[in-house]
């Protein structure tokens, strides 16, 4: 299902509906950015996939294991895929361990029975096969068991080696749900975090009721998000190359420049931590989970 379900491809027919899904946060996603390949304005949280040859709504990543993008339409199937794979690999490793341990125990029992018959002694209770073995003999016994039953041993080794990776992926995607992010967005936030650490990011918050000159992009006024997301605060977040606050036109230029009417020069302060920046897509863990497992299809 994760491989064959539409991940949420944005087309000319559903483009307007895709714009209504999520608001722009003016940090990771700004209005007016046009996809040069698809030819339309990119909806918030979408990303163009060169492999799938299209923009995907709330794109997480392109997964080579399912040969499909993971997006708004199939993210819940992908989470269930990770759950099932993790559980099956754990079961495979555990079952193989039990079968090979039984094989070693049967070998230990036959050896002790043969030894007691040779000595004409009664057969006592059979001890566990690993009792009294040092580490080299212990691992040598497992090596014998793997060779003795290659099929079970191969399944056990494959399961044991892949199990940590599957649980790691599952844990990472649970974290993404908790944080209200996608893999694509986590990479964007990582870029901001690196620039903040270098002292290159500044923030300005509205205090006068006027609006910022955030960007030149425009979005249709009657296109509003359908979901209840917190409105982004009137603030600007900017990167600079020299570590100095951005320079905007002075307030005296408002009169001479009609384009700056209703705008002002904000007071910039340096951002010291990513915690100072709001992620409006984080609506709380349970609402984030609901948005993944009850997707609104295009």
From TrEMBL:
Domain of life: Eukaryota
Pfam families found in the cross-reference section: DHHC
Subcellular location: Membrane
Domain Palmitoyltransferase DHHC: 34-189
GO process terms (BP): protein targeting to membrane
UniProt topology in membrane: Multi-pass membrane protein
Region (Disordered) residue spans: 241-261
Transmembrane region(s): 77-100
Catalytic reactions of this protein: L-cysteinyl-[protein] + hexadecanoyl-CoA = S-hexadecanoyl-L-cysteinyl-[protein] + CoA
Compositional bias per record (Polar residues), positions renumbered to this chain: 249-259
InterPro entries attached to this UniProt entry: Palmitoyltrfase_DHHC (IPR001594), PFA4/ZDH16/20/ERF2-like (IPR039859)
UniProt entry tagged with the keyword Manganese: no
GO molecular function, one term: protein-cysteine S-palmitoyltransferase activity
EC number: 2.3.1.225
Free-text note on domains in this protein's UniProt record: The DHHC domain is required for palmitoyltransferase activity.
Family of the protein in this entry: Belongs to the DHHC palmitoyltransferase family.
Protein name: Palmitoyltransferase
Phylogenetic placement of the source organism: Eukaryota, Fungi, Dikarya, Ascomycota, Pezizomycotina
């Amino acid at each position: 299902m994760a491989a064959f379900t539409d991940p949420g491809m944005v087309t000319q027919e559903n483009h307007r509906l895709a714009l209504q899904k999520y608001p722009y946060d003016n940090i990771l996603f700004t209005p007016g950015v046009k996809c040069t390949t698809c030819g339309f304005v990119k909806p918030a949280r979408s990303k163009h996939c060169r492999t799938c040859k299209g923009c995907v709504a709330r794109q997480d990543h392109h997964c080579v294991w399912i040969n499909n993008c993971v997006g708004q339409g199939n993210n819940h199937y992908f989470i269930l895929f990770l759950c099932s794979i993790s559980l099956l690999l754990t079961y495979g490793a555990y079952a193989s361990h039990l079968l090979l341990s039984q094989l070693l125990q049967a070998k230990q029992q036959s050896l002790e029975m043969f030894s007691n018959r040779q000595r004409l002694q009664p057969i006592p209770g059979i001890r566990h096969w690993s009792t009294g073995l040092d580490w080299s003999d212990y691992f040598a016994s497992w090596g014998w068991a793997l060779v003795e039953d290659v099929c079970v041993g191969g399944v056990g080794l494959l399961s044991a080696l892949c199990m940590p990776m599957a649980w790691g992926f599952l844990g990472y995607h649970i974290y993404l749900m908790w944080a209200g992010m996608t893999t694509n967005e986590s990479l964007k936030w990582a870029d901001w975090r690196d620039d903040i650490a270098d002292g290159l990011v500044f923030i300005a918050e509205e205090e006068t009721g006027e609006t910022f000159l955030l960007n030149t992009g425009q979005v249709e006024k009657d296109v509003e998000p359908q979901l209840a997301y917190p409105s982004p605060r009137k603030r600007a977040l900017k990167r600079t190359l020299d570590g100095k606050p951005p320079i905007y036109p002075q307030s005296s230029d408002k009169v001479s420049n009609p384009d700056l009417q209703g705008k002002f020069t904000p007071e910039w302060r340096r951002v010291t931590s990513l915690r100072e920046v709001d992620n409006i897509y984080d609506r709380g863990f349970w609402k984030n989970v609901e948005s993944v497992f009850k997707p609104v299809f295009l």
